[in-house]
Amino acid sequence: MRRDEYEAFFKDGISSLQNEGRYRVFAALERLTGQHPRAVWHGPDGTKKDIINWCSNDYLGMSQHPSVVKAAEETLKNEGAGAGGTRNIAGCNHLHVELEAELADLHEKEASLLFTSGYVANEAALGAVAGMLPNAVIFSDALNHASMIAGIRTSGAEKHIFRHNDIADLKRLLQSVDPTRPKIIAFESIYSMEGDIAPISAICDLADEYGALTYLDEVHAVGMYGERGGGIAEHVGVMDRVDLIEGTLAKAFGVLGGYVAGSEAAIDFIRSHAASFIFTTAPAPALAAGALAAVRHLKSSQQERSAQQRQVQLMKNKLRSAGLPQLPSASHIVPIPVGDPKLCKQASDILLKEYGIYVQPINYPTVPRGTERLRFTPGPNHDDRMIEEAVQALTEVWLRLGLSIIHRAA
Fold this sequence. Notes:
Layout: H1 3-20, E1 28-31, E2 38-42, E3 48-53, H2 66-79, H3 94-106, E4 111-115, H4 118-132, E5 137-141, H5 146-155, E6 158-162, H6 167-175, E7 183-188, H7 200-210, E8 212-217, H8 232-235, E9 244-248, E10 258-262, H9 264-273, H10 275-278, H11 285-300, H12 303-322, E11 334-337, H13 341-355, E12 357-358, E13 361-362, E14 373-376, H14 384-401
Helix pairs in contact: 2-11, 3-11, 4-5, 4-9, 6-7, 12-14, 13-14
């Protein structure tokens, strides 16, 4: 191909996305320390607008908590910006070791291993374990995150996909496989686009019955559920029944990075075999310090979790009273279905430009076509007035775009 033909291919690909209404546009935000969820939007024309961020994964505002900021700032001054190498070669900082011990304790496991992101943690851990267990089979929930799918593909192991949260379907698939083969059940605790919660206890029952290893992604739950923020598995009292727990430091803990917790032997095995861990520069010490402060704070503080749960329920109630649709969600995630990519993007644009409400449209391939939605994540710092204003703005936009109002409460 000629160079101009390559360029034409790229441009045609972008045009197709734009015509479908699922071309992704980044909103350039300026975050304001101590003021989350308030931020400043820098528009493409150079203008600035004060906005409220309604779709952040900084669920509890911990990225701006004084103890987190102080820990990161002091470490940056004392130790510099970067780790200086991989964990194997000069990059293993004492803060990495402390953080791994803290995370292992959080999940009541023998050990944990720190990664540069939750995506890398899933890809590395699933890839290494399933790839090296002889003749292994993976059973994966149909709505598992892209990072888990990437890990399964990396492993090269045989896979079976069970219907989302469907215990009967999982059991049917487990029964279809030679009982002597190693098995891994990979699933999430909270599914971030639906807001629903996995039947962890029932899955663990099947794992016991069929001799399977359990791999649980808790990224949307750590910090927010359980007595110490250990996630849904802690909340329902089954952490000891889950073999490997994967989490993130970039959501409720407000910093950056991912991790896997499990037995000492399993974690040492992943550390020794996962290529994306071995050949990646370690997380910056300042980030590890900030994450360590966040984990320690949320182990003992109930204030952020309680406030978040209160505000989430308030928003769900207000949406219901206004007759606005919402997908059933047992968690802090509030998905509002639109069902059309162009209308979803249009609603998002109006909310941002006219109301100062930032909520990103969620389109294919993140969710299936025809299920496009706005995904709200109320937190402890979204006050009652913000919620009232957001619901009022949504109602006005819904009516303007001719979207369905279910009913209006008397």
